[in-house]
Amino acid sequence: MEHTESITPQAGDLLVIVGTVKGVFIFSTNRERTRFKVAGPWLKGQSIYSIAYLADRRTPRILVGNFSMHWGAVVSWSEDFGATWIEPGDGNVKFPQGSGLSLNAIWALETAPLVGPDVLFAGTDPAALYRSDDRGETFRPVESLLQHHERPYWLPGFGGLCLHTILPHPRDPQCIYVGISAAGTYRTNDGGETWTRRNKGVKMEGGPPHAPHFGPQCAHKMRYDAKNPARIYLQNHPGVYRSDDGGDSWIDIGNGLPSVFGFPIVAHPSQGDTAYLIPLESDQFRVPIDGAVKVWRTRDAGESWAPLGEGLPQRDAWFSVLRDAFTADGLDPAGLYFGTRGGQLFSSADEGESWRSIADWLPAVLCVKAVEVR
Amino acid sequence: MRFHLPSALRRWAGGNEIVEMSLPLDVRMTVSEAILMLGRDYPAIRQRVLDDQNEIRRHVNVFVDGENVRYTQGGVTPVSNDTEIWIYPALSGGCGCRFDDGRMTIDQKSH
After folding, report:
1. Do A70 and B107 touch (CB under 8 A)?
2. Domains of chain B, with CATH numbers?
3. Segment A218-236 mean pLDDT
4. Interface test with B, best of A70, A90, A181 (most B CBs within 10 A)
5. What's the ipTM?
6. pTM for the full model?
7. CB A277 within 8 A of CB A307
8. B52 vs A94: CB contact, 8 Å cut-off?
């Protein structure tokens, strides 16, 4: 693969932005997605927990939540496809004085074009939601969630108490879902004034059965169905679920999978009822089953699943795939991309039917985002 | 009072290794207060040394006249106009772990 000092994409080109534990890389390609160039790393030595892309036609902005073990976390951005980065001197995501909380990392960045063209949400560890109205330059906490009365019952998972998923509703600007480990799914229907827990039907692990909707609910990742936003797919810590009523209830769709443990779940960008996930062996052994990497796909909203593995390593692959390290582009046919903690980046240009490695020796991959340049 | 900055922070202080700050001779304050005062001119230094509650970050070591304040009085260690303050990234910061009340937690989106 060709390495380039800078990315100068044309309209219609595709960027695969990869956040790793040691910086951010950008892979660029055209719509054929057969040849990639790579540039980076930038923000060297910092862990890139999250990526967003504000597709302003004049100055598209790539934003990342970068984290230094020593010096903390900020939201930084580039308006020249990575050539230069604005890393704010003063912190732009901060917990209020007196809250007793201090930012560890920025796990999620999400645009919300229906809420506003310049709006960006950030999810953090400790679990909180932040909102920016100036394209990610400054943020303020969503107080209603920060002060939520159930907060004392939220418990940190292995990676901390993090708000890792933000789903602004694609048709209703007042509705947003967030995923918190370990608290589960919360929804607002009033633009963030109030939040209600939406875990009914989700099996709880690590707590008593008589309190199944509370406490250690460890949502790993949620995604909207492409056609029906009332339908949401959930990869939970111990299970795979679907809601058909906007999160009011969840049904188990794990039947047919070799394991229901995993981190990411990806909905097809345009086909309803279609989603992908990457099962790992178990909570205690977070690797592909038997060392063979398979992406599993459903085309009937989880009623059945089928493995896809052509081109993926089918033996001796002992990496994990993190919750934000699997994504889809918006092209037709859809492209899929996932990065591993072993530093590989795999892509499919045919909806998951076949795969190939784009990169083999990256630092551990934390997050991947594919964007089309317009 | 003189602050000795590590190389990683100098870009936030005009490239300077040492930043001096004058206090009235009779004024004493805590080292955290001194870093906050430094932050008036160099907010990015304060941001990277102190957390959101103005506590010294877990993986930053601050030495006051040669003593690591982590083993003395922490952020309330007294300083005065003739104090030398060194700031260092802790060696622990590269391990991908953090320690909360003696319990190790894996960072970096660990799963």
Report:
1. no
2. 2-106 (3.10.20.30)
3. 97
4. A70
5. 0.91
6. 0.94
7. no
8. yes
